Amino acid sequence: MMKAKILNKSRELFLKLGFKSITMDDIAQEMCCSKKTLYKFFANKEILVQKTVEHVQDEIELNISRILTKNKNAIAGNFALSAYFREMFKSSETSPIDQLKKHYPEIYSKVHERQVKECKVWFVHNIQKGIDQGYFRSEIDADDYANFYYMLIFQINENTLYERDAAALELKALEYHLRAMATPAGIKELEQQLAQTHP
User: Which of 10, 34, 94, 161 is most buried when burial is the number of CB atoms within 10 A of its CB?
Assistant: First the structure.
């Protein structure tokens, strides 16, 4: 129970203020406990960062699965996913991915490898769903388009310092990605989703 509380508080602080600037002292103070309590569960800050990141990834993968399964409409599912990530990172001042790469490169490498593998599975699944629903063109290669989209998102996150700027660019990338695949019915649905979206 205490371990889960530490991970949740660490997640909140790391995502909001950065992996580098938050110390074990800061986390202990926020939790009104001693550093000794933190070290009982996590031997050092690097291990805490690693476990926190894994915790966040588990949560993200579960929510991607829920969102894309719940939304029967493939295009609506993409917008629901985009809204989820905007909400999740709205309090972040700078890009968490950029901070992780800069200050914890080994942890970043593991995160990136897992992210590529998991995201591609869901991107391909959702593209195929859109093809089956008549929203995406039947001749497109779902694997290729999933790779194209992931590369777009990856480049945005790698090269954008502020999270608010990344969120705005990601929404444009989503529109670009969907328009490239859409049938006339897909374009109509895309326009409806854009009209309802307020980044």
Answer: 10
